[in-house]
Structures are given as structure tokens and as C-alpha cells.
């Protein structure tokens, strides 16, 4: 009887330890679920911000012919989002397996949870890195936009100055043409007067003796 009581006590103690271990694993699983959902919400918020930014930057990129480089980047972000969904599904499968008495041993489950946690941290780090890249891209395109605006203003100023120069040249050309016309009229008048004077001199000149013979 004493041995049976001791065996029962050992069994109860062993069961208590197993229950405590299961409760600890279940708590970790719940925490992991919460962390995963938090990561998902943060990712979705970043995706909302990114999509709003991408909609604006795409129109700008179209004018610069750089939309192709953004396509691969968007695909990579969608792949990251799909990866988080898959990880969440894996977490649910692990939780169900943990609640199943005939599931895999606790050590294997703990290893899987640890691997899953590491993957989630990697995805979070990737999201942070991509978010930083987006912000840097936004700053770069804002700087380019300002430089383009400044260049447009410079070009407008140059164009206005060229228009003024062309107008001035055209005005001077019309003045020169008018002066040339006046000079031509004056020259024609002088030639006409010179021709009349020469004719009068010929008429008033005395006839030579040889001309009389002829």
C-alpha cells in the first residue's frame, strides 16, 4: 500500500509538471499569436502608408520612365505579406497540435515555436528596412521634384530673355530696312537730279567745228 501511494504521488507530481509545462507552452503560444497579430497589423499599416505613397510616386515615376524598377519592389512586399499569412497559419497549426494529447513532444513544439519566432523577427526587420528605404526614396523624389521646378524656372527665364532679344533684333531689323529704303530713295533722287543736270550741260555746250561739218 505504501508503495502504491508513493507511485500515485509520483504520478500526480509528474502529471502536475506536465500540466505546468503545457500551460507554459500554451501561454507562449498565446503570446506568439498576439505578437504575430501585432506584426500583421503593423505590416498592414505600413502597407496602407506605402500604397498611398506608391500611388503618388507612380504618377511621378511614369513621367520619368522608372515604373519598371518599382514593380519588383512591390512584388517583394506582397511576398512578405504572404509570408506573414503563412506564418500565422503555421502558428495556428502549432497551437492545435499543442492542445492535442497525441501531438508531437513538447521539445519539438518549443523548437518549432522558436524557429517561427525567429522568422517573424526576420520579417519585422525586413519591414523596417523596406520602410526606411521608402522614406529615403520619398526624400530623393522630393529633392528631384524641387530641382526640376528650379530648372523649369531657369528655363522660363532664359526663354523670356531670348524672346526679348529676338523682338529687339526684329525691331532693329525693321529700322535698318526702313533706313535702307530711305537711302535708296535718296540715291535714286540724286541720280535723277544728276542725269537732268548732265543733259542740260550737253544742250548748253557750244558746237565744235567738226560737229558742224558733220
Structure description:
The chain is an all-alpha fold and 214 residues long. It has one domain. The chain is built from four helices and no strands. The chain has helices spanning 2-64, 67-99, 106-204, 209-213. Helix 1 runs antiparallel to helix 2, helix 1 runs parallel beside helix 3 and helix 2 runs antiparallel to helix 3. The longest helix is centred in the C-terminal third of the chain and has 99 residues, at 106-204. The radius of gyration is 49 Å and the shape is rod-shaped. The N and C termini lie far apart (184 Å). Mean pLDDT is 75; it is low at 210-214.
Mind sketching the topology for me?
Elements: H1 2-64, H2 67-99, H3 106-204, H4 209-213
Number of domains: 1
Residue stretches low in confidence (pLDDT < 50, at least 5 long) are 210-214
Largest sheet: none
Span between termini:
184 Å
Question: How many helical stretches?
Answer: 4
Assembly state: single chain
By secondary-structure content and strand pairing, the structural class works out as: mainly alpha
Task: Report the strand count.
Answer: 0
